[in-house]
Specification:
Chain lengths: 352, 239, 280
């Protein structure tokens, strides 16, 4: 969702700088008031971790798209919304400065789209009310907290990503950059970010649940004293619940370390990249439809496919993937050949 | 200068990590703190720095390790962590050495002069402007020691100073430790290094002091060491 | 199967390791010496901002006006001795999105704008090209800034313009630990992949524990970090490297460059030049 400088008119970029600057100012004030000198190192290390964690992409099967964990919800649940926001700002600044991911002038807009919604809206409108609510009152306290964490993170990620995507569309359109009608652009962006938000929500909830099981005191708005934390039985239950949700959402989503373009690019490019779905190891027409032919095809594909998505270093292009596919096949051929020879070699030895 | 008087620590109720520990370390002494994993070595270190609450009394130079005294106590102590990355948080070695000095109100020129002094004393002049994330393991450890020594602490705590170093760098660290004329507390599983650097050894086991005495005696006591899940230093092992 | 394993390792770590390499490369570039490197960081930052501001403010059909803006980054690259090709490596991130947004323009904006002989170029095509150029130009400008200025200098400059110390300190510390954390993620991915051959990635059952473990460990790490800061007298305030006072030349550079940018913005130098050549 990182916007480049070229996508924004100066006036829009400046407005977003002011907005994000105000949010930053408020956050800094809050942190200063807390006057906890331990907060800064904790924020820095956590931010660095989220930065590294974002490098793992979560591919959504069937779309060829992938979203990275944005981290806003995660950071604000762990550090509080203000500290979370500042950490996100720093992450975005480093991405912008050293990786050209998002422009220098677009930093204000990027902070707003990705950090503000995730941290402030996500925390105050979703995380806090849900964690404080009396939902699932009939259940055992810990199980209820677990469910609340799940719902809050999934709902939070979906909502904040929708808001972010909407803002990207709004900002680009206001800047007069694209001739694409607002409505069409919106229709391209929102659904894709719905899927990304769901995946991000699942990942975020999985991480937060893990933290909840091991160190609940780290999470904001979780009432540790009333949980009776001595009992430790139901990581399994959680996993089952999680599994059900996962099944509902995507029919067995799994996480790939992938090099797919992220959702914004996908929304704009569509699935136009030739051979993309094949390279993903997914047959789009057959996806989700169980037929003998599809099963068979899948079997064959599994048999011969080396690995779905790898290209030459840093080449995401279809060409790169095909070339690497060829090279990979050749390598496997050589390798199997070597294996065959090795097998014979051993036989000879034994025979001696 | 450092006194532990009937110190006990519990992380969770009923689970004592340190159980009624008492010892005293005199000025200028080099003490090896040894024991199996989970014996309580790092807890001793942490409690000394006032990072975890304790029962009993811990004093540094007569100062009780307690909230009001913490900044004074900490001023007297230096800590070299096992993972140097965790203590080298500034961009360059120079900035890192100067960090503490500036915090204690030294001017920039003074601090840099001091940093130069400590770097040349340790033979690390080349590292001055290097970036911390580009140092090798051995360089990082030496630089970390420099940052601590620059503060001129009365006592240095070192957590596994020779772990994950090659023999050459390990030797450099050992020589450096031997050259430091201050109170030293060193925890390590590298008993050969303890032998080379410490005159006294405190052996911890299950949160209690199992033995306290001359390094030469304890580190040669095969039965004692093995009963506490340790072994004789390699150089003393005969096949 | 061993092969699959290997390939998995490669893809799993590639991204992270490439990023670490990229960071180190930027670091090396910033350590070089040149007239551009020695410019005051604040002067450079300001000039870069003004450049990008002016560049993106060009009208979407003003192709000839915009093209002149290329002069600044090219000159800077030449003066700094940094190869332009190192920067185009980063275009892979900027361009796809910019192109994608621009690609729709030719379809929606078909009004003819320019005809060269029989060839008619629509407004959409021109606005698409200017958009891409804006993307490339602003990338070049920010790249030249970052690759000739170390992060410490940037932070010192930020403090000079009164960006609050909380955020600058955070930036400095986070950057310090980014490489450390990336290495940890990389190692963990390797360890996971080696024990899960044939899996395309991390199973959803391990989603939480994978990142969660790291998270808890990093909390312990920050604890250690904090204690070692306390031991060196940390009281919540950081002191920064002194930035040398800006020389007159630094500010002259910023002023001259900015004036030039605005001249380029309001006077179509390319057209002027064209006219002169045509007349001559």
């Amino acid at each position: 969702m990182h916007m480049a400088d070229a996508l924004l008119a100066p006036a829009v970029a400046a407005t977003m700088y002011v907005a994000s600057g105000a949010a930053t100012g408020i956050s800094i004030n809050k942190i200063r008031k807390e006057d906890d000198s331990k907060k800064i190192p904790t924020m820095a290390v956590t931010a660095a971790l989220v930065f590294a964690g974002q490098m793992i992409n979560y591919t959504i099967p069937g779309t060829g798209s992938s979203g990275h964990m944005c981290g806003g919800m995660l950071l604000s649940a762990l550090l509080g919304p203000e500290a979370g926001f500042l950490s996100m700002v720093v992450i975005l600044a480093i991405q912008c400065l050293f990786f050209a991911d998002g422009g220098l002038m677009a930093l204000g807009a990027n902070c707003w789209n990705m950090a503000f919604y995730g941290c402030f809206v996500g925390y105050y409108l979703i995380w806090k009310p849900i964690m404080r609510s009396k939902w699932f009152g009939g259940m055992e306290k810990k199980a209820a907290a677990r469910l609340k964490i799940m719902i809050a993170s999934i709902l939070g990620c979906v909502l904040t990503l929708q808001l972010g995507a909407f803002s990207v569309v709004l900002e680009t359109t206001l800047s007069g950059i694209t001739e694409l009608p607002f409505k069409a652009f919106l229709l391209l962006m929102q659904p894709i970010h719905l899927a990304i938000g769901l995946v991000e929500g699942l990942v975020t909830s999985a991480v937060l649940l893990f933290v909840f099981e091991s160190r609940p005191e780290l999470l904001g708005e979780v009432d540790c004293d009333n949980l009776g934390l001595t009992q430790k039985r139901s990581l399994k239950t959680t996993l089952v619940i999680l599994a059900v949700v996962v099944a509902l959402v995507g029919g067995g989503l799994s996480l790939f370390a992938s090099s797919n373009p992220d959702g914004l690019e996908w929304a704009l490019f569509g699935n136009a990249e030739a051979g993309y779905s094949e390279n993903m190891g997914l047959d789009e027409d057959d996806f989700g439809i169980k037929s003998d032919a599809a099963d068979k095809a899948e079997e064959i594909q599994e048999g011969i496919a080396i690995l779905p998505d790898y290209g030459f270093k840093d080449s995401d292009s279809a060409a790169g993937t095909t070339v690497s596919g060829l090279v990979g096949s050749a390598a496997v051929a050589v390798f199997t050949l070597l294996l065959c020879m090795l097998g014979r070699f051993f036989k000879h030895r034994k025979a001696k | 200068m450092i006194r532990f008087d009937h110190v006990s620590i519990e992380y969770e109720k009923g689970k004592r990590v340190l159980d009624d520990i008492s010892f005293e370390i005199r000025d200028g002494e080099s003490v090896g703190l040894i024991g199996a994993n989970g014996a309580g070595k790092s807890t001793v270190m942490k409690s000394l720095l006032g990072l975890i609450p304790h029962e009993g009394s811990i004093t540094v130079d007569g100062l009780e390790v307690y909230k009001e005294n913490l900044s004074q106590v900490r001023k007297k102590l230096g800590l070299v962590l096992q993972n140097s990355d965790n203590q080298m948080f500034m961009p360059t070695v120079l900035e890192d050495i100067m960090f503490g000095l500036l915090n204690y109100g030294m001017s920039r020129e003074e601090a840099e002069k001091k940093a130069d002094g400590i770097l040349s004393k340790l033979g690390l002049e080349d590292l001055k402007y290097r970036h911390n994330h580009k140092l090798s393991g051995g360089e990082k450890r030496m630089a970390a020691i420099a940052t601590v020594l620059a503060m001129e602490p009365d006592a240095v705590l070192m957590d596994e100073p020779t772990s994950a170093l090659d023999p050459y760098n390990r030797r450099i660290i050992i020589d450096t430790i031997r050259g430091m004329n201050i109170t030293k507390i060193i925890t390590s599983h590298d008993l050969d290094m303890i032998m080379d650097t410490c005159s006294r050894v405190i052996l911890l086991s299950g949160g209690r002091v199992a033995a306290d005495g001359d390094a030469d005696v304890i580190l040669r006591d095969k039965e004692l060491l093995e009963s506490k899940r340790l072994e004789l230093p390699l150089s003393l092992q005969t096949r | 199967m061993i092969m699959t394993c290997f390939v998995l390792l490669y893809t799993g770590m590639e991204k992270i390791d490439a990023a670490v390499a990229e960071l180190r490369e930027m670091d090396d570039l910033a350590a070089l010496e040149s007239p551009v490197h020695s410019l005051h960081p604040l002067a450079k930052l300001l000039t870069t901002f003004i450049y990008i501001f002016v560049t993106v403010s060009f009208d979407k059909y003003d192709l000839s006006g915009l093209i002149v803006m290329l002069v600044y980054p090219v000159l800077m690259f030449q003066a700094s001795g940094i190869k332009m090709s190192t920067c185009f490596y980063k275009l892979r991130i900027v361009l796809p999105l910019v192109c994608a947004v621009g690609l729709f323009n030719p379809f929606f904006d078909k009004a003819p704008m320019l005809s060269i002989g029989a060839l008619t170029v629509s407004g959409g095509v021109i606005s698409m090209i200017t958009l891409m150029m804006k993307g490339v130009f602003s990338l070049m400008a920010s790249f030249i800034f970052v690759s000739t200025t170390s992060l410490d200098a940037i932070c010192a400059a930020l403090r000079k313009i009164h960006i609050p110390s909380v955020i600058v300190t955070l930036l400095l510390l986070t950057f310090r630990y980014v490489t450390v954390m990336m290495e940890e993620v990389s190692v963990m991915t390797t360890a996971y992949m080696l024990r899960a051959p044939g899996q395309k990635g991390i199973n959803y059952k391990a989603w939480g524990s994978f990142l969660g473990q790291l998270l808890l460990r990093s909390m312990d790490r920050s604890e250690e970090l904090y204690s070692s800061m306390l031991l060196r007298g940390f009281n919540g305030e950081f002191s920064y490297a002194d930035v040398p006072k800006g020389r007159l030349a630094d500010w002259l550079f910023t002023i001259a460059a900015s004036v030039l940018f605005f001249v380029f913005r309001y006077v179509n130098v390319a057209e002027l030049l064209g006219n002169i050549i045509m007349r001559g």
